[in-house]
Amino acid sequence: MKWDEELANRLGGSSDFQRYELGTEEKQLLFFYLDSLVALSYIQNHLVDKLFQDQHPYPLTAVHTVDEAVQAILEGFIVIWSPSEQTAYKATSKGLETRSIQESENESNLRGPRDGFVESLSTNLSLIRRRLPNADLHIHIREIGRQTKTKVALLYVQGIVQPEVLNEVRSRLDTIDIDQVLDSGIVEQWIEDNLYSPFPQVQNTELPNKVLHAILEGRVAIMVDGSPFVLIVPVTFSMLFQAPDDYYDRWLIGSAIRIIRAVGALVALFLPALYIALISYHPGMIPTQLALSISATRAEVPFPSLVEAIAMEATLEMLREAGLRLPKMLSQTVGIVGGLVIGQAAVEAGIVSPVLVIVVAITAISTFLVPAYNASIALRMLRFPMMLLAGSLGLFGLILGAMLILAHLVSLKSFGINYFSPIVPYRPKDWKDLLVRAPLPYLKERPEILHSLNPKRMNLQKRKKGW
Amino acid sequence: MKIRPLLSLFFLLPFLLAGCWDRVEIQDRLIVMAVAIDKVRTEDEKRNFYEFTAQLTEAQALSGRISTPNISPVWNASATGPSIFECIRILTTRVARQPYYDHLQIIIIGEELAKEGIDRALDLFYRDHESRPKIKLVIAKGRAREVLDLDPKLMPISGRYISTLMEEGEAKTARFPKTSTIGQFSSYFHGGANCVLPALRIEKREAKMAGGAIMRGDRLVGWLSDQEVKTLRWLNGTFTAGDEVIVKNGPEQERNVTTFEVRGARSSVKSEIRNGIPVFTFSIRGEGSLAEDGFDHKPSLRKLKEREKEISRNIKENAEKLIVKMQKKKVDIFGLYEEMRRHQHPYWKQHRNNWDEVFQHADIHIDVVTYIRRFGQFK
Prior knowledge:
Chain A: Keywords: Membrane, Transmembrane, Transmembrane helix. Chain A is an alpha+beta fold.
């Protein structure tokens, strides 16, 4: 009875710890489990019948120490103590309730598979393994978190990934010593290169195909149990503007959309600042007819363009956040109130000029063009310092801000890989997959910047030029 | 490290300065669309005074957003003073908002001032950062201010109307001289060459572009009719489309004419020195189509060739007449001075100071070839 007492001693602090006794006089079994994780009916329906048959030994794993038993119980196993044999066994239960695989809500795509990751690590791993039945796909699971003991999986393809990158990721993961890892975001923030940069140095995705594409290029994926967001490292800036559709659609379409995204990113960052600089400092750069009409519409506006623009942009950010946090039914109302009522009323009251409303609207749409939400947020935040610079120093300030951002991007690194490559450092080969996604046969090599051990990813010898 | 706080302070300091010292919101500026400069003389005739008129535009009134009758969209404010800059400063004593010259479209110079030289009057506009070299330059027959006072039919602002008129006309006809901006004028004048500027006349309360003003240096010395301007542009080969040549198909049939629509013209000059006299050969080549013809609906290759010859002869005659006229006036408006400087440098060095006399006796030949490329279908 030592085990009995020991387990009760260790786990008795929780009301969900259950001790369930069953049996006859000659054969008695004790079941220990947490009823928050295991249903009693499961024991009765599935285990009891098998255990009370006479064919021994039990088809179960033996548990040797109390520590092991405690850990097993906490993880959702059923520990069975057989007093007659003085041995403990552990049996798996049905498994935990998980969300079923659904279409990803945050990353929607038109072309390509729809399934998205869920909170369960094993389900997520199965999504990857199913698509890559290859012994070279290595999955290493470790536990991180003093309290949560969260399972964190490291995924890479042996023979493609560059060992230095892999070792870097491993050694950074080894340093994590923290109470709780409730989402992959905690891991991301621990291992990223620059804590103060507005730009994300780790990519997260809900799409299995994105992860596969990355690890087959020679990157490393990090999966955290309990989080549907899988991390991809190392990251380059251009990756944040790419979506899986780019590869699945024909190259002209993919390229056109990528160019639109790049334009959108520039617009999101610079348009309000440009508006301020032109209105307040350089009206000579506006075409004469437009200058006249802007001047006419702004005649009643009491604020300088900087105040006007910052107020409207801030309102926009508030509306967006409100729409995000509210129940979905209400968020539509917020959109209507914000877009129609505030915009219209502000113009009619003469507080802002209609041109600014157009600028704000275009900026808002442009920020939605960036597929990576964290990159889009970075651009949105940087817009405000840009506006301040443009409002205080005009176009000179705008250029100053742009140069500061560029200097930062160029100096940034993600796991030893230059963040702004292949533009800086210049890698002309990788430009095939930058702004323009070159036709498939042109992409026969993995990105040069990753220094993959196996750079070729296709063989064109059998493919004829003209079919 | 101490450098970080210092660096951030450095970036924050600009915001604490007097703050946006160059900032003038667009609605606080008063856009100047056109400028007219005339000459006025004080009664004791001691100092030359400019009469400077700026055409100020009130954007809000222009857009019809306010209907107060005493606010007018356009205001031609004048000031007189010994220098243009002084005039602009005098204007600020009467105009409550800051005039803004970045959108200045056109500078109109009055005839009297032009006769005395326009370079000094334009000096400010070459130098100032607000005005651009692309501002159009026009010489008005009569007073320049009166042009701004016109009420054109299509646009509320007369300065902008004339500016648009010149832009549109440039593409449709060769009746406007090529030199039409202060930047072009400045490079001609400061390069020592003469040029022809567009001339403007008021006719029945309307502005009319009428030929060219012959500028010897920066002084007005005479006028060219619009037909002469067309010939000048043939000689320079500086237009691509828009001219027309009319040839009579025989003297007895007065109304039977062929009109040749020019689609492109090129011209090159070759120079040489023969017996101490410069000899120039203009080779002009024109292409185009028949706009209206007198073929009696029976075109033939022979007839076409005849027409081409006739057209070439017409152009050549006009050109020769113009050259004789200019040689009499001793004004080289054909850019021959520059041609000499480039290709006959020793001779140019020798005669650069008496070029007008040399030009008068220069031997100028003209070759014209024209091609009728299409004559249309009329069945």
